[in-house]
Amino acid sequence: MIKKLLLLLIAVLLVAAPVWSGGQQEKSGKAGTASDTSGVDYSDNPYTDGQDLSGKTVNIFGAFVDEDARRFTASMVPFEEATGIKVVYEGSGDFETLITVRSEGGSPPDIAAFPQPGLAADLVRGGYVYDVSDWLGMDYLKQQYNDAWLDLADIGGIQAGVWYRASVKSLVWYNIPTFEKEGYEIPETWDEMLALSDRMVADGYTPWSIGIESSGATGWVATDWLEDIMLRIHPPEVYDKWVAGEVKFNSPEFREALDYMAEIWFNKDYVLGGRQGIVLTPFGDASTPIAIDPPAALMHRQASFIAAFFPQKGAEIGKTVGFFYLPPIDESLGNPVLGAGDFFGPMQDRPEVRAAIRYLATGLSTKAWIEAGGFVSPHKDTPLDWYPTVADRGIAEILQDATTFRFDASDLMPGPVGAGTFWTEITAYVNDPKANLNRLLQNIDNSWP
Amino acid sequence: MIDTSSIKSRPMQIILSLVIAALLFVVFAWSFNFMRGGDSPRLLIAIVALVVGVGGIWALFLTADNLVNQFPIGVRDFLRPYVFIIPAFLVLLIYIIYPTIRTIAISFFDYTRGGTPSNFGLQNYVAAFQDSALLIAIRNNILWLIFVPLFSVSFGLVIAVLVDRVKWEKIAKSLVFLPMAISFVGASVIWRFVYYFATYGQQIGLLNAIVVGLGGDPVGWLRLEPWNNFFLIVIMVWLQTGFAMVILSSAVKGVPSSLMEAARIDGAGEFLIFFRVIIPYVSGTILTVTTTIVILVLKVFDVVFVMTSGRFNTDVVANMMYNQMFTRGQYGRGAALAVIIFIAVTPVMIRNIRSLNKA
Asked: E strands of A183-330, at which residues?
């Protein structure tokens, strides 16, 4: 009996031992071949402070998947070539859930790519994120980013990461062939936009395609509209107070924004499918009607990322679909831009992680993605001529011309509101014409922690 | 088994067993670190997991058994069950009992994402029950609780009895059973297409295509209150009828033919036989199938999450819990809802375990 056991144990050890040494060998082998074949001096680069960190690995965990993930990986190649550090990117659609689980479970990634600061704020509070201003210095960050971006990354008293991708939300996408055929002009003011909508209805078109369905996050499209309107009817200070919870939802300021939205959304002739269409159409599908031939609707307000959602056949940005800046309502407020962005927060402190963060703070780290299209970089050292198309450059210019830039309010509000009642109660308001607006708005205010 | 040679070397045997056990734990610790490291190829990690996981546990059991064998016979019989039960119990303790206790504990604190639990009290439960959304979710859970078991068990029983008499029984049963092979999420995606509402062009959703084909206007089924709850319940019935049918079918086949014949000779019609002979005979099975489905329905989450995410007053408690916990980061509130579900499931579980023990 005991002999058998010994034999079994030996067998287990025998199987395990080569596996172990195999693992070790493979590690050293990789590093060896890398330095042998290329013969690059890995200490001579702007990221590693003169150290040779080749063979080390940096794990990045984020929310981009599929094509976005491939483009991100491609944009890390210059860093890998310069330093010999391997960047392993892992993306998940459930990033927001998993990053918390991982951090609290004691196995955070080296760097997390946060799609919004609100979630990062929770993790900063838990002490899981390092301060990048300690690593890079505030002067360097100021040289790389506008103050607006640095203010947004200033979470709980630390710079919780470096900005990597900017998204411009104040865009209206439209069907170019119909605009040309009918002689429609790009509206410069909100009133012109409404007049244009009326003209389209008179000409037998449906002006707007709107869809807010997004499974658990249904309603965020409505919150984006409302934020854009808030920026266009009130000074930015009111917007900031609203984000901070000082201006309530059940307030004249916010109700005024709702009225502007209702004027378009609840006009049966304006919106494809009416209220029913708005609440049941997935946000990605809502962009399709303006891109098909003949179009089922002519205008669609959505962030820059929607370019990836247009049908691949027939929709060409610049030819079939174009965009214009969502026009101002109160012209004394200038051209406010609503946006969002992804930033990379370090969750481990190792030399190679610091090097990767330093790289991500440069425009070069976004070059490959910019060239692939549909990407706006927030870095100051990103030249406009990297943008491959007029459209991409146009979006980058809208961002540069903005008189006010404000971050998506729902992303900045506390989770129970920004990822909770703001979505659900506005969805209920849109869904039901008989909804008790007073009660719905009160629900949002009550949920503020 | 009891041979004299082993008695002689007993101290030696005990020491050897202990040494082997210690070595095994070293191997476990090493393999855990190896697998967690994540630098090695996935295949290698999988192989280590299999070899150490299966071989190692087997070796551990053999060692423990060997150790027990060194004791006098009376002690052996007393010890042996524990040797085999304790590892399983430890796993349960770590993965079920500890999380349960922790969830119950958290539910009494203010605890949000990134924060620490503070301020002991009943506030989460008070807030939950003051939330009109919870009352709607409880109403919906009750609808699910009544209609899913009712329809899936009735359909299952009727199909089981009917196909018992046809030649193509196997094919018919396979067809009804087929949806069981689909995950809840997969089934929900399928049904999303059934209920799809297109704002322009052709209606690609099955139901709306039929409605339009008959000359009607397309309907946004999922926001058609209060019927939308039933549209979701249909999905679960579709999934669970097969399960009920298979279990009930074997019970129906167990009804003695002499009993049926006796009923026929006494002049009972088919309906009478169904209600007075078959149903009483298989009532135990019906109860077990019903409670199993009831437990499943109490925890219903996937279908609602995929179809509507609780919009249009279709929310259920489990989906609310998920939203509070993971979307909004309100751990305390989420835990309170989890405890509410836990309390609701417990009596049914106890009943089910009791009836299993009887059988």
From this structure: 299-301, 321-325
Give the integer Cα–Cα distance in Å for A308 and A284. 9
Q: How far is A372 from chain B (nearest CA, A)?
A: 30
pTM of the predicted model, to two decimals? Answer: 0.78
Contact A431 B30 (CB under 8 A): no
For residues B322 and B334, give the distance between their C-alpha atoms in angstroms, rounded to a whole number.
7
Q: What are the tens digits of pLDDT across the range A11-70?
A: 655 555 544 444 443 333 334 344 444 567 788 788 888 888 888 899 999 988 878 888
Q: How do residues B66-75 score in pLDDT, each as one tens digit?
A: 888 888 888 8
Contacts of A222 in chain B (CB under 8 A): none
- What order of strands is seen across the sheet that includes strand A321-325? A299-301, A171-175, A321-325
Considering only the beta carbons, identify the residue of B17, B51, B305 that sits closest to A16.
B51
Three-state SS for A337?
A: strand
User: ∠ CA B120-A441-A420 to the nearest 5 degrees?
Assistant: 55
Which residues share a beta bridge with A154?
A159
Q: Hey, are the CB atoms on B329 and A416 less than 8 Å from each other? A: yes
What angle is formed at CA A392 by the lines to CA A387 and CA A393, rounded to 5 degrees? 65
If you count DSSP H runs as helices and E runs as strands, how many of each does chain B have, helices first?
19, 0
d(CA A57, CA A395): 34
- Helix B227-253 × helix B169-177 angle, to 10°: 140
* A5 at B interface, C-beta within 8 A: yes
Dmax (CA) of chain A:
92
Q: Which residues of A touch B201 (CB under 8 A)?
A: 296
Beta bridge partners of A173: A300, A323
A430–chain B Cβ distance below 8 A for any pair: no
Q: What is the pLDDT of residues A163-216, one digit of tens each?
A: 999 888 999 999 999 999 999 999 999 999 999 999 999 999 999 999 998 877
Q: What is the DSSP letter of A85?
A: P
Instruction: Sort B348 into a burial class: Cβ within 10 Å, 0-12 / 13-18 / 19+.
Output: middle
Distance between B80 CA and the closest CA of chain A, angstroms? 17
Residues in contact with A74: Cβ distance below 8 Å, sequence separation at least 6, in sequence order: A368, A369, A372
pLDDT in tens, A347-399: 999 999 999 999 999 999 999 998 887 788 888 888 888 888 888 888 888 88
Q: Is the peptide bond before B226 cis (omega within 30 degrees of 0)?
A: yes
DSSP strand pairing (A336-346 vs A162-168): antiparallel
Question: Cβ neighbours of residue A45 under 8 Å, at least 6 residues apart?
Answer: A82, A83
Which amino acid is it at A87? V
Report the interhelical angle of B227-253 vs B184-194 (nearest 10°). Answer: 130
- Taken in order A93, A96, A99, A102, the sign of the CA dihedral is negative
Nearest to B114 among A125, A420, A424 (CB): A125
Q: CA torsion, points A31, A34, A37, A40, in degrees to nearest 10? A: -110
Indicate the pairing of strand A111-114 with strand A299-301: unpaired
Please indicate whether, in this complex, the C-beta atoms of A8 and B69 are within 8 angstroms of each other. Answer: no
Amino acid at B326: F
Antiparallel, parallel or unpaired: β A154-155 and A299-301: unpaired
Selection from B277, B297, B289, B294 nearest residue B249 by Cα: B289
SS3 B174: helix
Q: What is the pLDDT of residue B73?
A: 82
How many whole angstroms from its chain centre is CA B341?
14
Name which of B207, B302, B311 to mutate to probe chain A: the one with the most chain A Cβ atoms within 10 A of its Cβ. B311
Residue A357 token pair: 């963060």
Cis peptide before A294 (omega within 30 of 0): yes
In tens, the pLDDT along B166-197 reads: 888 888 888 888 988 889 999 999 999 999 98
Copy the structure tokens of residue A142: 């100021």
